[in-house]
Design brief:
Bound molecules: 6-phosphogluconic acid
Structural class: alpha/beta
Distance between the termini: 81 Å
Number of domains: 3
Strand content: 5-15%
Oligomer: single chain
CATH superfamily of the largest domain: N-(1-d-carboxylethyl)-l-norvaline Dehydrogenase, domain 2
Strand order of the largest sheet: 3-2-1-4-5-6-7
Helix content: 55-70%
């Protein structure tokens, strides 16, 4: 009997997705460019429906038609070379899915090129890391809707489920699935940085121990802040380094890495002209963190207030931090979803933002209870311009903005860098201001460059001889 799907690329993600498909009743052909990973897959793993292949021809030949091939290789030029090697072996109507964190521009190009050859290309945003791949990721597939229908039964089976609903939905045309995954990661960066700033405030300003912060985060994970990132952060903070006996977090070098998806989200926001400032600050925070040697030198030579840990009413301030974090999250998600909305209308993708929020409830890194509220907001009114203007989030923002303000002021007074908390507050205050100061910018532009300006009281464009 022919195999129902082929998985090309057996790194951790590819191997786990293949196992997930096997556990869900698929007959899976597996292939890797080098045989070591195929051997490693088969070593110690047995399943009656898995078939390893060491030649591309026999791998492809083993698949039932239309062939379905899921490629999970490093994003970038390797995806193109894999596609080039596959195409001569495929027939019109066959389907290639790319599950890597590919740049959506490349996915758009691959979609066009393959469609011209009669081959369907589905961009599949995959979130959830190695565990998610094995037990149920969130999946964001896009491309030809008819082709999607043919792979939907497999993708929906392997996806995480929330209330019985698969965390997988058809996203839209061409590479929109990878676009949605990219902005998911931008939100992920912001969410991680906001939690980190809450941690820093609790530690440096309130003087809590790492274990105490873990306990606080565990308790927050039972409230409206419940999320995967909150849960794993609490767990991380309980971990002790066996060698030194110190909290694990204290022996890890404070330089954050990144593979690029957060940066792409910011680049896209700049290109699109949308103010995703919190998402972008989280990328810059990682860059700033990487200047470790300079930071060590600067700490000794640049003035600023010293932290005075412990002088505040801890219980009251823990509540302020909690509300500030919630408020920061509202603003960050509002920015991410605004970016979706803007891309959707600029590209004509017709993204269903309520549905996207629903599939983010399970499997993915930003899964959180909070996404139910986002989804409800879009269900109530699919034309929402900004989540901050929906009844639920407006009420929450009005309740919590003062806590965010308190935390930013107190942090700044004490010399604590809070890039995402402060970006959230600036965004919030800027967004709720009917007067922005951009009139002065326009005057300056007109002064030095005769760029003209509009007036508030007359139609047309004007120039002044300053
Ligand atoms: C996910 C993650 C995953 C990965 C990214 C981001 O949704 O499962 O986003 O795709 O963690 O590579 O990692 P960086 O922090 O290295 O950019």
């Amino acid at each position: 009997m022919k195999n129902t799907i082929g998985v090309y690329g057996l790194g951790v993600m590819g191997a786990n997705l293949a196992k997930n498909m096997l556990h869900n009743g698929e007959r899976v052909a597996i292939f890797n460019y080098t045989r070591d990973l195929t051997d490693a897959f088969m070593d110690g793993y047995s399943h009656p429906e898995v078939s390893p292949y060491f030649e591309l021809e026999s791998f492809i030949d083993s698949l039932e038609k239309p062939r379905k091939i899921f490629i999970m290789v490093t994003a970038g030029p390797i995806v193109d070379s894999v596609i080039q090697s596959l195409v001569p072996l495929l027939d019109p109507g066959d389907i290639i899915m790319d599950g890597g964190n590919s740049d959506f521009h490349n996915s758009n190009r691959r979609y066009q090129q393959l469609e011209e050859q009669g081959i369907h290309f589905i961009s599949v945003g995959v979130s959830g890391g190695a565990e998610g791949a094995l037990h149920g990721p969130a999946l964001m597939p896009s491309g030809n809707p008819n082709a999607y229908q043919q792979v939907a039964p497999i993708l929906e089976k392997i996806a995480a489920k929330v209330d019985g609903k698969p965390c997988c939905t058809y996203i839209g045309p061409e590479g929109s699935g990878h676009y949605v995954k990219m902005v998911h990661n931008g939100i992920e960066y912001a969410d991680m940085q906001l939690i980190t700033e809450a941690y820093l405030f609790l530690r440096k300003i309130l003087g809590l121990t790492v274990q105490e912060i873990a306990t606080v985060f565990q308790s927050w994970d039972e409230t409206e802040l419940k999320s995967y990132l909150m849960e794993i952060t609490a767990e991380i903070l309980t971990k002790v380094d066996e060698e030194t006996g110190k909290p694990m977090v204290d022996v890890i070098l404070d330089k954050a890495g990144q593979k690029g998806t957060g940066k792409w989200t910011s680049q896209d926001a700049l290109d699109r002209g949308v103010p995703s400032s919190i998402l972008t600050e989280s990328v810059f925070a990682r860059y700033l963190s990487s200047l470790k040697e300079e930071r060590i030198y600067a700490e000794k030579h640049l003035n600023g207030p010293k932290f005075e840990a412990g002088a505040l009413d801890k219980e009251a301030w823990i509540q302020f931090v909690k509300k500030a974090l919630y408020m920061g999250k509202i603003c960050a998600y509002a920015q991410g979803f605004y970016q979706y909305k803007s891309a959707s209308s600029q590209k004509g993708w017709e993204l269903d933002l309520g549905e996207i929020a629903l599939i983010f409830r399970g499997g993915c890194i930003i899964r959180a209870d909070f996404l139910n509220d986002i989804s409800d907001a879009y269900r109530e009114n699919p034309e929402v311009t900004n989540l901050l203007l929906t009844p639920f989030f407006m009420e929450r923002a009005n309740q919590f903005e003062s806590s965010l303000r308190k935390i930013v002021i107190k942090g700044f007074e004490n010399g604590l860098s809070l890039p995402c908390f402060s970006a959230a507050l600036s965004f919030y205050d800027g967004y709720r201001s009917s007067e922005s100061g951009a009139n002065l910018i326009q005057a300056q532009r007109d002064y030095f460059g005769a760029h003209t300006y509009e007036r508030i009281d007359q139609e047309g464009t004007f120039h002044t001889e300053w």
